Structures are given as structure tokens and as C-alpha cells.
Amino acid sequence: MDIFRCIQFIQTHLKLTFDQVDRWFDKDNKTLNYQPANRGWTVQQILEHIYLTNFYLLILIEKGSKKAMRNYLNLDLNLEIKNYSFNQGKFEKVGEYSAFEWIRPEHMDPKGSLNSDEIRGLIAQQYQQCLHYLDLMKNGEGLLCKTTMTVNELGKINVYEYIYFLSLHAQRHLTQMKNNELQIV
User: Fold this and answer.
1) Are 53 and 169 in contact (CB under 8 A)?
2) In the chain, at which end, N or C, are there fewer CB atoms within 10 A of the end residue's CB?
3) What CATH number is given to the structural domain containing 127?
4) Number of independent structural domains in the chain
5) Above 90 in pLDDT, residue 98?
6) 49 neighbors 105 (Cβ within 8 angstroms)
7) Range of 54's domain?
8) What is the DSSP letter of 137?
């Protein structure tokens, strides 16, 4: 897939994923606060975790987009575009719940300091930020900066792939929230 189809694909993925995440905020309190049998996170905690993870990923995405735009002055964008092919397959496992062990940093653990309305608003803002970066780098500039992603040994990924990773991370937790809901008696 070329970079322009990749950008469109990521925009669509973001829309579908963030719409699904947003619908969880409309669930009743029983669903939002149900403690699963395995003592895992409640849906409310998962939603806060999605927000926190997005927050930290967006810091890296912002830095990457700025560097990519600076690199545009010194690197051959046309050559990068010509040689790029989006390897969607290498990211697939990121969106699958329990597909591999994922050790997250403690600062991405939910603290319970935000209510549902606050988290919902912040996640909506994060979605808009992602769209902003995709629009800012609509000509392929996001290829001009790569950053190492250690999760599932993804290695060096470009700014677009970081945004896709963010969306896949949220998708991963959609399954977890559905699993919680299915346990409610």
C-alpha cells in the first residue's frame, strides 16, 4: 500500500476505533464499574488507560511530526515515497487483546482521578490531534522521521505508523471491555 492510501487507511481506522471507544461511555454504571473475575481493570479504568496511553504516544507523535517537517528541508521526500510500502501485517498483533505480553509503564495505569465525562472529552481531543497530524503531513512527510517502538519488537516506525499503533492500542482494549461486559450477570 502506498503512503497516500496508508494515510487514508489510518484515518478510517482511527474513526472506526474512536467511535467504538466513545460508545463505551454511554454504558450504564454497572457495566462501567464491573470488576472482572480475574481482578482486571473495569471498563472505566480501561477507558482511562486508553486516554493515558494516547497522551504519551501523542507526545512522541508530535515530536516525530516536527522532526519530519524539519527533515523535509534536507531529505528527498519523493525517494522516500517511492520506496515506501506499508506493512500492515507487522502491526496486526498490536490490535489483538492478549496476543503477546505487553508490559506497560506504570504512568499509563489508571489512577481514577478523572471522571467519565473528562476522559471522554480528552479522548475526543486526542482523536482530533491524530487527524491534525495526518493532515499536517498529508504529502508523505511523516515518512521522514522514524522512532523505535519496542512493543512487540516493531523496531523503527514512521510517524504514520505511530498513529496507527495508537489506534490499534485502543482497538486492543475494545476486546477487553467487551469481555468484561460479557461477564456481567
Assistant:
1) yes
2) C
3) 1.20.120
4) 1
5) no
6) no
7) 3-183
8) T
